[in-house]
Amino acid sequence: MAEEEKIPLLKPYKMGKIHLSHRIVLAPLTRSRSYGNVAQPHAILYYSQRTTKGGLLIAEATGVSDTAQGYPNTPGIWNKEQAEAWKPIVKAVHDKGGIFFCQISHAGRVSNYDYQPNGQAPISSTHKMIPPQKELDDTMIEFSPPRCLTIEEIPLIINDFKLAARNAIEAGFDGVEIHGAHGYILEQFMKDSANDRIDEYGGSLENRCRFALEIVKAVIDEIGAERVGIRLSPFADYNECWDSNPEELGLYMVQSLNKYGILYCHMIEGRMLIVDDRRQIPRHLLPMRKAFNGTFIVARGFDRDEGNKAVAEGYTDLVAYGRLFLANPDLPRRFELNSPLNKYNKFTLYIADPIVGYTDYPFLED
Ligand SMILES: Cc1cc2nc3c(=O)[nH]c(=O)nc-3n(C[C@H](O)[C@H](O)[C@H](O)COP(=O)(O)O)c2cc1C
């Protein structure tokens, strides 16, 4: 297809030194199929199904330490065995010409004793516990009372992110995405609903963002700014994490990130609206998009039309798709042809099965 005939989502884009052939990104998706916190060989098929030449994929949240988990069977990247296990998966994506970033993550208090070494308390910015929450598949998850990190312990967690980033590069990933969204540990520090500290990591906006920015700096110093992105969700309220001034928080973060020359900022939209039976993205992120110097990625609630509009109007550079990409391994092709889409099955999102709800979503030609 000639360049000028392509829909906006299918136009090429240069992200730093990386040439992307289109703007449709695989959003990070926890799939709970990494037994014993080790990525499994069945992930080779799952990720390669969703790979296109020149397309960007972000791997599921991957733990930076043995205290990072909050869900069953999530992968880690804090030790050699885990890094080795990622290698064939990364290779499969590269063999098809994809670009693959690893989302490095720590759940903090979004966890319970069962996921912690020796059944200890999850760690957080606070002692405040999260009440039980309903998951997308309607299951309820319970949390345990967290232990508030002492100021002396904070550098250890920052170091875990740094080592995880190093391991990700050694496993072959093109870069890492620091998980600073959805109420996990970075947000537990950033947002005033969860941070009740009285030391230099609590109180003012600058203090609350210190932990996240120290992680950014440590990771960038370790692997280089051109290989680091971050995911942020100032407008979201997942896992009891919200902020009284999300716009100020988002702006402060992107302005600070500019100083580090981070490659991309991946932001979660506010709640989608339905107007005249059509979905409409509220576009809360415009001030952050304008203030940020690097590549901007948006996610949450986008479909083909809203994604095309967002790119055409300069609201974003790239659009990450979660549920649509999960259920449609050939999403870029379907968008190109404007074909019907498979629906995702909410009951198989997090089951441990290595095939069902994972690699058995049909392609167009099936
Ligand atoms: C099954 C599932 C797992 C998810 N896991 C992660 C994750 O590991 N890391 C993350 O940042 N977001 C995660 N998300 C959020 C998605 O990346 C995405 O932001 C969300 O689904 C909204 O986009 P969508 O409307 O295109 O689905 C997950 C979402 C789903 C449905």
In short:
30% of the residues lie in helices and 16% in strands.
Q: What descriptors fit this protein?
A:
alpha/beta, 366 residues, fatty acid biosynthesis, fatty acid metabolism, 17 strands, 10 helices, binds flavin mononucleotide
Structure report:
Keywords: Fatty acid biosynthesis, Fatty acid metabolism, Flavoprotein, FMN, Lipid biosynthesis, Lipid metabolism, NADP, Oxidoreductase, Oxylipin biosynthesis. Pfam families: Oxidored_FMN (PF00724). It comes from Dendrobium nobile. With 366 residues, this protein is an alpha/beta fold. The chain has helices at residues 42-49, 80-95, 154-170, 185-190, 205-223, 246-260, 286-291, 304-312, 323-327, 331-337, and strands spanning 13-15, 18-20, 24-26, 56-58, 62-63, 99-105, 123-124, 133-134, 140-141, 147-148, 175-180, 228-232, 264-268, 273-275, 278-280, 295-299, 318-321. The strands form five sheets. Strands 3, 4, 5, 6, 11, 12, 13, 16 and 17 form a nine-stranded parallel sheet that branches. Helix 1 packs parallel to helix 2 (80-95). The protein is globular. The two termini are 23 Å apart. The mean pLDDT is 96. The structure holds flavin mononucleotide (FMN).
